[in-house]
Design a protein that fits this description.
It is built from eight helices and 14 strands. The chain is of the alpha/beta class. The chain folds into two domains: 10-19 and 29-36 and 188-259, no CATH class; 51-186 and 261-292, Vaccinia Virus protein VP39 (Rossmann fold), CATH 3.40.50. Strands 1, 2, 8, 9, 10, 11 and 12 form a seven-stranded mixed sheet that branches. The protein has a seven-stranded mixed sheet with strand order 5-4-3-6-7-14-13, sandwiched between helices. Strand 6 (143-148), helix 6 (161-171) and strand 7 (172-183) form a beta-alpha-beta unit. The chain is globular. The relative contact order is 0.16.
């Protein structure tokens, strides 16, 4: 289970560098840094503010959702409902007989899901659950398609991979399809090109009418090579301002991203009772479709 934990046990060298490079201010306290804060209200706010950018995403996994003529579909990490809405209104596809369910860890998405539902009434057909997929008791069905889009696999802590695959296996029908995308890394050479080799700093401005301004600063540490690929550590500072530019809130997060070599990923899938039936590398991400063995 991913919990919001504070940063009293952060690596000392990381903290020293953040202060040295003035990413952290003298008024910032290490114990106030959130780790793996995907349940935090700021995360939901940021994701919602990016909805217009998200609307232009390719979402390469989705073209495979209907190829097995599913009777029901479950999306893990459904957020405010963008992917589900896209599936409900899929071009030249009658989805009226398909039951759609979404599960989302962050309860703060409830407000944004209702707002998105007002924009797209088709979402009224969705059963939305706000709970942890790995531990929930709210899922009673088995699903013909389970979907984990937008490279979300990379945001799961490495130690939770087997738990994720076991839980998917539990809820997938015998002939069901688990679809997910992952960063396209098929070799060590590709891995070296994909991940940053130096510390990188970048920023972003996120605006939303009626909600003030939000700035995002990203501090990426050089990635660490591992037996499964690599891990990247990013510190993110979100600062919320009023329309008069008064600072209202400053939230700092430490986030990890895992980059899995495709051979290692296939090995873990096999160990958890899956065989790969789809491996599509034609887009910006690798799309995997796996079934029970």
């Amino acid at each position: 289970m991913i919990l919001i934990t504070m940063g009293s046990n952060l690596p000392e060298k990381e903290v020293e560098r953040l202060y040295r490079d003035q990413f952290l201010l003298p008024s910032d306290h290490v114990q106030d840094i959130y780790q793996d804060g995907y349940q935090h209200e700021t995360w939901a706010d940021v994701f919602w503010r990016r909805r217009f950018r998200h609307s232009h995403r390719e979402d390469p996994e989705l073209k495979f959702v209907f190829q097995t003529s599913p009777s029901n579909v479950l999306e893990i990490g459904a957020g405010y409902g963008r992917i589900l809405q896209k599936l409900l209104e899929w071009k030249n596809k009658d989805t009226s007989a398909i039951a759609f369910t979404g599960i989302e860890l962050c309860t703060y998405f409830q407000t944004y899901f209702l707002q998105y539902q007002n924009l797209f009434p088709s979402l009224q057909r969705v059963r939305m659950i706000f709970d942890n997929f790995l531990t929930t008791s709210a899922l009673k069905d088995n699903y013909d398609v389970i979907l984990l889009p937008m490279n979300t696999l990379a945001n799961f802590p490495f130690v939770q991979l087997d738990s994720l695959f076991k839980t998917v296996h539990r809820y997938l029908t015998d002939e069901g399809l688990f679809l997910f995308s992952n960063y396209k890394i098929t070799s060590s050479e590709q891995l070296i090109k994909h991940i940053n080799k130096d510390t990188e700093y970048s920023g972003d401005l996120l605006v939303d009418l009626g909600s003030g301004l939000l700035t995002a600063e990203y501090y990426d540490f050089p990635s660490t090579f591992t037996h499964y690929g690599a891990e990247s550590i990013t510190y993110i500072c979100y600062s919320t301002f009023s329309r008069e530019y008064a600072l209202l809130k400053r939230s700092i997060f430490r986030s990890s991203t895992i980059f899995l070599l495709s051979d290692y990923l296939k090995q873990r899938l096999s160990a958890n009772g899956f065989s790969v039936v789809i491996n599509d590398d034609s887009s910006h991400s690798s799309v995997y479709g796996v079934m029970k063995t």
